[in-house]
Design goal:
- GO terms for molecular function: cholesterol binding.
- It comes from Sylvietta virens.
- By secondary structure, this protein is mainly alpha-helical.
- The protein contains four helices and two strands.
- It has a two-stranded antiparallel sheet with strand order 1-2.
- Strand 1 and strand 2 form a beta hairpin.
- Helix 2 (32-38) runs antiparallel to helix 3 (42-72).
- The longest helix is centred in the middle third of the chain and has 31 residues, at 42-72.
Length: 120
Amino acid sequence: ENAENMYFFSELALTLNEPEERVAPTDSRLRPDQRLMESGRWDEANVEKQRLEEKQRAVRRRREAEAVEAMEEGKDYEGYIPLWFERKVDAVTGELICVYKGGYWEAKDKQDWSVCPDIF
């Protein structure tokens, strides 16, 4: 119903970005620039998007510097390690895949997001 006014998206597609309570602070639905955009505050959203992108670049530069420092000292450097997933090789296809390693649902039940980085 009313699909022509909803870009012909399905109901599922239209609701994928709806806010949900009690999710990790890293959930993409909480992106402040996205929330501003969806409320029609375009100029503020653009400024916020630029701030977030610069924050991401700064984190990348810091990780790159840490990697160089570790290499110069002859140490291993793990780099970024995802919280809820791990990379594995698929036994059938031989491709690198991400597999859920646990922890998210337990953290959500406890509302203990202390392991989450401040990405916004």
